[in-house]
Every structure is written in C-alpha cells, then in structure tokens.
C-alpha cells in the first residue's frame, strides 16, 4: 500500500485540514514541513488533504500554513452544515 493510501485511511478518508471527505482520486499528500525547505517524507511530516488546500498551502512554511488555516472560518471543525457531509 502506498504511503498516501495508508495515511488516507488512517485519517478516516478525510482532509487533514478542512475535515471534508475526499474521494480517493482527489487525495494529495501535503508535507507539513515542505520538502523544498528540508522537510522529510516520513509519515509524521505527511498528511492527506484535498487538492484545493494543497494548492493554497504549497510551499508555505509550517508557520504560514497554520496562519492560513486559522484565518479561514470555514475550515474550523464543527462549523460545517449538515449538507456538507453529503456533498463532501
Ligand atoms: Zn481540505
């Protein structure tokens, strides 16, 4: 099993950041500490997230990523509406 698939199942098939369910075809691996900045490819540095967030976060540092995430009210867990679970 590939690392991306393993992490995907470990995370309950949800995006690490926005907690939305992701279809297996849409998963992307996000390196919390970017490879371009010396981050590792080990599991503890990798999370699965949706492509949208992967594009936004890109090569930002961990610090910058946290700021982006914390500033997005819609990404906060518990704020989702019922239909979000269905649309996913
Ligand atoms: Zn997401």
How would you characterize this protein structure?
The chain has 88 residues and is of the alpha+beta class. The protein has one domain: DNA Binding (I), subunit A (Orthogonal Bundle). It is 34% helix and 11% strand. It is built from four helices and two strands. The chain has a two-stranded antiparallel sheet. The protein starts with a helix and ends with a helix. The model has no long low-confidence stretch (mean pLDDT 85). It binds zinc ion. Zinc ion (ZN) binds at residues 15, 17-18, 20, 49-50, 53.
Spatial extent as radius of gyration: 13 Å
Structural class determined from secondary elements: alpha+beta
CATH structural architecture: Orthogonal Bundle
CATH topology name: DNA Binding (I), subunit A
Strand content: 5-15%
State mean pLDDT (0 to 100 scale). Answer: 85
Number of helices: 4
User: Main β-sheet, in a few words?
Assistant: 2 strands, antiparallel
List the uncertain runs: none
Count of discrete domains: 1
Order of the strands making up the biggest sheet: 1-2
Number of strands: 2
Distance between the termini: 25 Å
Q: How much helix is in the residues? A: 25-40%
The top level CATH class name: Mainly Alpha
Shape: globular
Give the topology string: H per helix, E per strand: HEEHHH
List the helices and strands and how they pair.
Layout: H1 3-10, E1 27-31, E2 46-50, H2 51-57, H3 62-70, H4 82-87
Antiparallel strand pairs: 1-2
Bound molecules: zinc ion.
């Amino acid at each position: 099993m590939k690392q991306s698939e393993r992490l995907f199942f470990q995370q309950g098939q949800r995006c690490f950041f926005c907690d939305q369910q992701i279809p297996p075809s849409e998963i992307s691996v996000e390196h919390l500490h970017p490879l371009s900045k010396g981050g590792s490819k080990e599991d503890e540095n990798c999370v699965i997230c949706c492509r949208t967030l992967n594009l936004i976060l890109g090569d930002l540092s961990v610090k910058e990523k946290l700021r982006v995430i914390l500033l997005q009210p819609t990404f906060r867990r518990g704020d989702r509406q019922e239909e979000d679970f269905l649309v996913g």
